[in-house]
């Protein structure tokens, strides 16, 4: 597109945007099972109105916009109450990744201040910890030390974490739950270990913090995962996931202002205004803040309880559907409304494409350590009422995959991959991409072959290949 010359009327702009949107996934139908958390049309409309009303206000300037300071304090206080953070402080961020980035920065700079002998700080991450921690380490010069997970529960392996602690360790990480499998790590034991060894402990409750807290208050039997656990020093919790707020809103909570101090950034080094930032972003739209404030008010605890009842019942139905198909297996014992399942005797990535052809969009996850290749499902309010349709689509898809040629012989593909990897050269990436059916600059129409090939490659090659591809599509 060339830079537009003349102004266009509003209705033309909206019509053109609608045309562009026509090719998007119809997420309002409840069959997109990742990345969407839809509270339904009525609440969505309220949230959108609040969001739009504050879209132009800038949270960088709490002096100009005391409304946003108040809104942010309110949202953080509500999260701290849910997560039993008496005395906890925090801020709203653009999402889980930013909250995690701040937790890692706080840990790194806390270590710099209190343990000056450290030269190369490390954080310990169970293999199920979200990639946002790896990104934070990458950005902040911290070394991620990955520990295996327990092979049947898919929870963090405590002895492995204990064994990975070195004099450079600054923080242990646990998830409530991890996104991939929806299981909660043994947080009381991990936090106790951190405390005993004088380390920080971050709980990633990005996806679960709100739903699990509401479940706890409803009387569900759940392990403790929040600030009530001695040793937990920071928690990330996303409003824009199971808080059903509009994107982008998460909260990062620190157990004390002393720890938060190390996440903050202020600079009066330039000729410009003094920059005073509690988060990574400097200019911050008030939209996400007002949207989150509106979401928690529009839904309220009783509304969240209703959502919990319905999404948990729906999840049970979807899990039963998976278990009713011979050869499919739910991984671990998911505690919330998200789970992953693997297949014994068919290519799970072909099943993903077959489900997509029926309008059901799941999330493929490559094999990693003890976790086989699988499909992830996040159930949200919009999924409720569609369990029978999911069951039918799943059974038809399994039958189709079993009957069809699919991506062909995986062993033969593996042999080709191995041969390519054995003779690395300047063309290797292009040839692996071609083998996978990944065309630079183009969005694929099916993903089975791509994921099958990616699943055969070493992690570093997958990452490098994806960087090349990403570099081609924008
Ligand atoms: C457990 C967990 N942590 C962190 C993140 C990253 O959140 P975001 O995509 O909002 O940056 C996610 C996203 O799915 C998540 O599930």
Written account of the structure:
This protein has helices spanning 10-21, 41-53, 66-82, 96-114, 131-140, 158-164, 187-196, 209-218, 257-260, 287-323, 348-357, 387-403, 410-422, 428-436, 448-454, 459-473, and strands spanning 89-93, 122-126, 143-147, 169-175, 200-204, 234-238, 250-254, 265-267, 275-277, 328-330, 338-343, 363-365, 374-378. With 474 residues, it is of the alpha/beta class. Among the domains are: 50-294, Aspartate Aminotransferase, domain 2; 410-473, no CATH class. The strands form three sheets. It has a seven-stranded mixed sheet with strand order 1-7-6-5-4-2-3, sandwiched between helices. A four-stranded antiparallel sheet has the order 10-11-13-12, with helices on one face. β2, α5 and β3 form a beta-alpha-beta unit. It is globular and about 65 Å long. 46% of the residues are buried. The mean pLDDT is 97. Pyridoxal-5'-phosphate (PLP) binds next to α4.
> Total number of helical segments?
16
Radius of gyration: 23 Å
Major β-sheet profile? 7 strands, mixed
Could you tell me the CATH topology label of the domain at 50-294. Answer: Aspartate Aminotransferase, domain 2
Query: Which hetero compounds are present in the coordinates?
Result: pyridoxal-5'-phosphate
CATH A-level architecture of the domain at 50-294: 3-Layer(aba) Sandwich
Distance between the termini: 13 Å
Name of the CATH first level of the domain at 50-294: Alpha Beta
Strand order of the largest sheet: 1-7-6-5-4-2-3
Query: What order do the SSEs take from the amino end to the carboxyl end, as H and E?
Result: HHHEHEHEHEHEHEEHEEHEEHEEHHHHH
Q: What class would the helix/strand composition place it in?
A: alpha/beta
Write out the CATH superfamily name of the domain at 50-294: Type I PLP-dependent aspartate aminotransferase-like (Major domain)
Percent in strands:
5-15%
- Uncertain segments: none
Number of strands: 13
Summarize the amount of helix as a percent range: 40-55%
């Amino acid at each position: 597109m060339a830079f537009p010359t003349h102004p266009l009327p509003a209705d033309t702009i909206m019509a053109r945007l609608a045309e562009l949107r026509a090719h998007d996934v119809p997420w309002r139908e409840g069959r997109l099972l990742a990345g969407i958390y839809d509270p339904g049309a009525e609440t969505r409309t309220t949230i959108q109105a609040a969001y739009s009303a504050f879209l132009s206000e800038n949270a960088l300037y709490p002096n100009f916009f005391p409304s946003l300071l108040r809104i942010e304090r309110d949202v953080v206080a509500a999260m701290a109450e849910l997560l039993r953070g008496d005395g906890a402080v925090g801020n709203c961020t653009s999402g889980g990744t930013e909250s995690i980035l701040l937790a890692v920065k706080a840990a790194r700079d806390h270590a710099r201040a209190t343990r000056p002998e450290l030269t190369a700080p490390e954080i310990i991450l169970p293999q199920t910890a979200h990639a946002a921690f790896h990104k934070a380490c990458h950005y902040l010069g911290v070394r991620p030390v990955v520990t295996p997970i327990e092979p049947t529960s898919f929870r963090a392996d405590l002895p492995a974490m204990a064994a990975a602690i070195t004099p450079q360790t600054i923080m242990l990480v646990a998830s409530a739950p991890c996104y991939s499998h929806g299981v909660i790590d043994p947080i009381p034991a991990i936090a106790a270990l951190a405390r005993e060894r004088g380390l920080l402990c971050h709980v990633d409750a990005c996806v679960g913090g709100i739903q699990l807290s509401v479940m706890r208050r409803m009387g569900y039997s759940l392990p403790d995962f929040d600030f009530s656990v001695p040793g937990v020093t920071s928690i990330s919790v996303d409003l824009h996931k199971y808080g059903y707020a509009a994107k982008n809103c998460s909260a990062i909570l620190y157990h004390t202002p002393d720890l938060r101090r190390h996440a903050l950034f202020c600079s009066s080094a330039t000729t410009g205004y003094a920059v005073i930032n509690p988060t990574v972003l400097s200019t911050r739209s008030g939209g996400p803040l007002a949207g989150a404030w509106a979401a928690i008010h529009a839904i309220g605890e009783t509304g969240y309880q209703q959502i919990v009842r319905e999404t948990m019942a729906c999840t049970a139905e979807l899990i039963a559907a998976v278990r009713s198909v011979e050869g499919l297996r739910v991984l671990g014992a998911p505690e919330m409304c998200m789970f992953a399942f693997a297949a014994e005797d068919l290519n799970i990535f072909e099943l993903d494409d077959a489900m997509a052809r029926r309008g059901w969009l799941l999330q493929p996850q490559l094999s990693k350590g003890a976790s086989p290749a699988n499909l992830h499902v996040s159930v949200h309010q919009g999924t409720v009422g569609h369990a029978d349709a999911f069951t039918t689509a799943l059974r038809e898809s399994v039958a189709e995959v079993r009957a069809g040629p699919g991506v062909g012989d995986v062993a033969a593909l593996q042999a080709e991959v191995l041969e390519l990897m054995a003779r690395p050269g300047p063309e290797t990436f292009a040839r692996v991409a071609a083998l996978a059916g990944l065309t630079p600059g183009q969005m694929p129409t099916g993903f089975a072959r791509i994921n099958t090939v990616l699943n055969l490659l070493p992690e570093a090659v997958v990452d490098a290949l994806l960087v090349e591809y990403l570099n081609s599509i924008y």
